Amino acid sequence: MMRARRTAAAAAALLLTAGTGACSGAAGSDEAGTSELTGDVTMVVPFGAGGGSDIAGRTIAAGLEAATGATITVENRDGGAGAIGYTYLLSKQGDPNYLLATETALLSLPMTADTEYHYTDFTPIMSIGEDFTLLVVAPDSPFDGCADAVEAAKEQRVVAGVSGAASLDNAVFAMVEQDTGAEFDRVPFESGGEVMASLIAGRIDIASLNPSEVLGQLESGDLRALCVAADERYDYDALSQIPTAKEEGIDVSYGQFRGVIAPGGITEEAAAHWEDAGREFVAGDAYDDYIAANLLQPGPLYGAEFRAYLDDNRASLEEVMNP
Predict the structure, then answer these.
(1) Domain that holds residue 10
(2) Could you read off the pLDDT of 48-103 as tens digits, one per residue?
(3) How many domains does the chain fold into?
(4) Which of UniProt's keywords are assigned here (predicted)?
């Protein structure tokens, strides 16, 4: 079904943008260097090197380079849970030579902090897929499934590690609480790596982690997955036996998207240029390799479709972040 959704989304996007023309190489620049594409482009990553956003940004940058012939330099501008990178892109209003590797913080951070930006300040280019979180515990945990963890959290203190108030995992635990009436003692950490280390050390009881960052620990037996917060099970062999939250009686499904945005105020032609380049990237082997290596659910969306997705995603987040 996920493959069918990916195909349908791509076909719809092609219909929406029919007539925009094939992707071309880099164009010239006006005197200010902001209204037309040049050969030098910056891909901003609003988090540090080595993480999921950095990997996504570098992979997409390479794909867009191959599609356009432009030189795309990746620049990490981390800090403030992503706010520094997004604020930097905000300062590049109208300049299509800047892109940003985006994810859920685009929507969630302005709900939990006083940021200068709003997601509507930017131009949506494309999403490449979704990352559905796993609820995981230590191997000796008394919880056999997510239903057990929920029932325990209704009666006693169950400590859940999350990587920040604006993170996907914090939102997932909030959704579980709203659906079930359970209450987890959510403890924030700086990163998913710190959450995982604390879970392995026994300092917390449960965590919500992305498959790509926890697969090694699942395979080694250092951690155990209770369920995945998705509508369907993953079809990767390493994850296919993990039940969904809905199978456990918990009506929660929420994925972290990964994609690309550009500054607001760029021309329609510039936006179409990057959307077309995105389609070329998705049609190649590099996209499939990235999706498989990072255990994502594929689902590319472009331009207006990506904007509609962001609108819906934000509405879901608003219900739990600001109930």
Answers:
(1) 2-130+256-321
(2) 887 778 889 999 999 999 999 999 999 999 988 889 999 999 999 999 999 999 99
(3) 2
(4) Signal
